[in-house]
Design a protein that fits this description.
Elements: H1 2-27, E1 36-40, H2 65-86, H3 107-118, E2 123-131, E3 138-143, H4 155-158, E4 165-171, E5 176-184, E6 190-199, H5 206-222, H6 227-230
Parallel strand pairs: 1-4
Antiparallel strand pairs: 2-3, 2-6, 4-5, 5-6
Helix pairs in contact: 1-2, 1-5
């Protein structure tokens, strides 16, 4: 049983690498920025920070002899991890208190996000993150789930801003695919990031999720005159 668990662990690494490469090839026509695709396994995206894969370093990893050696060297650790998972599980830690919301007023941003989300039946949640004027905080300034507005951005969210990384994750516990990516205004000026959660039942796989999210991001960006416009009351 331990050997089987270890084999699954190693196979998941190989499968993840191949899928990332497939995402990259399939989405290339839709990406004009040279975005670097990252795929996170399981529930990793749900954490406060990201554990990034680096597909550019893992390209053709299945044919790399160094990886094969590394996999063999890591097998004992994988076995130990599998054994540890079969041991009695300690009681879960106390639930962390919900983060205090930041006061945000971004009427144009909220109207845009609500309109775009309503036009796509596959969207479960759409959230826009940006710096909040008059503060040093970055938070959700607009969201199809309004109670989330004002929630501070996580370290993982902040890690995407101004970068060329896109994170794709399948989250079975939430029944969604999630794509997190940087975003710019209509003039191409980067200012924040956007999270697009899509219903699993409406999506074929990570590649489909990525392509839909890229198209949705482009739609949102076309509606953003500037970062300041997002908060404009006029």
């Amino acid at each position: 049983m331990f050997v089987q668990s270890a084999a699954i662990i190693v196979q998941s690494i190989l499968t993840g690498s191949a899928l990332v490469d497939r995402c990259r090839r399939a989405s290339t026509p839709a990406m004009a920025r040279g975005d670097d695709i990252e795929r996170l396994p399981g529930e990793a995206r749900a954490g406060a920070t990201f554990d990034f894969y680096h597909p550019t370093e893992r390209h053709d990893i299945m044919t790399n002899p160094l990886f094969r050696v590394a996999a063999l060297l890591l097998l004992p650790s994988a076995l130990a991890a599998a054994h540890a998972q079969s041991a009695p599980v300690a009681a879960p830690a106390a639930t962390k208190p919900a983060p205090q919301l930041i006061a945000v007023s971004a009427p144009n941003a909220q109207a845009l996000i609500a309109r775009v989300a309503a036009a796509h039946s596959d969207v479960f949640l759409l959230g826009l993150h940006a710096n909040v004027p008059g503060t040093t905080s970055n938070a959700i300034i607009a969201c199809s789930d309004a109670p989330r507005i004002g929630k501070p951005s996580s370290a993982g969210d902040l890690a995407l801003i101004g970068k060329t990384k896109i994170v794709v994750a399948k989250l079975p516990a939430k029944n969604v695919y999630e794509v997190a990516m940087p975003i710019s205004d209509a003039q191409g000026r980067s200012f924040g990031m956007i999270v697009d959660q899509m219903k699993i039942a409406a999506i074929k796989d990570e590649v489909d999720a990525l392509q839909r999210a890229l198209a949705l991001r482009a739609e949102v960006e076309r509606g953003i005159q500037s970062e300041a416009w997002l908060f404009d009351r006029n």
